[in-house]
Amino acid sequence: MSLPDSRQLVDGLAQRDVRLVLYATGGGSAAISRLVSTPGASGVVLDAAVPYARAAIDDLLGGPQESYSSRRTARRLAMAAWQRACRLDEQVGTERVTAAKRAVGVAVTAGLATTRPKRGDHRAIVAVQTLGATRVVEVVLDKGARSRADEEEVAAGLVLSALAEACGLSAIRAETPCLPGDTIEHEACEPPDVWRQLFTGERRTALASAADAAETPAPGSLVFPGSFDPLHEGHLLMARVAEEIAERPTVYEISVANVDKPMLDYIEMRGRAAQFVDRPLWFTRAATFLEKLDVFPESTFVMGADT
User: Fold this and answer.
1) Alpha-carbon radius of gyration of the chain
2) pLDDT of residue 211
3) Considering only CA atoms, which of 290, 221, 219, 292 is closest in space to residue 255?
4) Which of 10-14, 213-217, 272-276 has the lowest average pLDDT?
5) Which of 11, 82, 177, 254 has the fewest CB atoms within 10 Å of its CB?
6) How many Å apart are CA 3 and CA 173, to the nearest integer?
7) Interhelix angle 71-91/54-61, nearest 10 degrees
8) Alpha helix positions (H), 92-147
9) Quick check: 48 pLDDT over 80?
10) Average pLDDT, integer, range 27-54
11) What is the mean pLDDT of the chain?
């Protein structure tokens, strides 16, 4: 495919004051060389890496992944990249909210043609994390229709085009040429303002429903914290037993921050929140129980035996 003009892309990113971190695994790493070999890239690109081995990905993401070529892994890598961009920008004295607004995390995870036949699809998945949205684009390639070099070019073009699109530079992105056996899918989540404020640290709590931006947790609540990935009958049984003992209704809590893993992205938050349509759920930045005690004062916590 024809790649976006790298000079136009870097100039456009610079004009938008972007601070970029990019991770590529399994394919698409040519996008990194295209960017960093372009004059002016040093003012835009803070870091780029190719965590190729599974152990390298596990180290970035805090443990083994269910699949190493999946939308969820791509999103987690993009979030890790976004958080690193924020940290690196803050280290040079940028105020936290400003760093969060101009940080962009991009990740590509791919399974492309190799020296041995692949049983699964040939694919490239690109995720872009900004304060404004989580975006994913996945292309499944017509298996055997392209050489490895051609598949790499598609993956690199997908990275640069997704980056341009996410940063409001749609005019310079290149369309992915589709062969008859190709498919391409897009997914995105633009969150309510209160979720963005969690990401910047301006808020410590936000109702998943975003029904009332000003609302804060009531003291003396019965709080059930967890990841709820997924919410299951065991959780609901624990909540019912706790309500009988404490004689008050349960509110649920998911921390978007984690001590040793990337934050939850907006698509992940949307999916978790969908499980609680008729139950109150708070998103917080309280990764530890000491932090939860501060967020939910005078409250009683529901915990499993393993916790």
Assistant:
1) 21
2) 61
3) 292
4) 213-217
5) 177
6) 8
7) 60
8) 96-102
9) yes
10) 96
11) 93
Burial of 147 (0-12, 13-18, 19+ CB in 10 A): exposed
Question: Is residue 91 exposed (0-12), middle (13-18) or buried (19+ Cβ within 10 Å)?
Answer: exposed
Amino acid at 48: A
| Token representation of residue 241 | 């037993």
Q: Which of 38, 27, 47, 46 is nearest to 4 (CA)?
A: 38
| Predicted confidence (pLDDT) at residue 63 exceeds the cutoff of 80 | yes
Number of helices and strands (H, E) in the chain? Answer: 10, 11
Bridge partner residues of 111 (DSSP): 123
Rounded Cα gap, residues 126 and 108, in angstroms: 4
In the chain, the amino acid numbered 101 is: K
Out of 19-33, 126-140, 168-182, 229-243, least confident range:
168-182
Instruction: Report how far residue 186's alpha carbon sits from residue 265's, in angstroms, rounded to the nearest whole number.
Output: 16
CA distance 166 to 81: 15
The whole-angstrom separation of Cα 232 and Cα 225 is 14
Tokens of 45: 């690109």
Instruction: Compute the distance between CA of residue 52 and CA of residue 192 in angstroms, rounded to an integer.
Output: 35
Q: Which two tokens stand for residue 289?
A: 């129980």
* Separation between Cα atoms, residue 152 and residue 27, nearest integer Å: 6
Amino acid at 256: V
Mean pLDDT of 48-62: 97
Contact 75, 268 (CB under 8 A): yes
Beta carbons within 10 angstroms of residue 222's beta carbon = 19
Cβ–Cβ < 8 Å for 233, 205? no
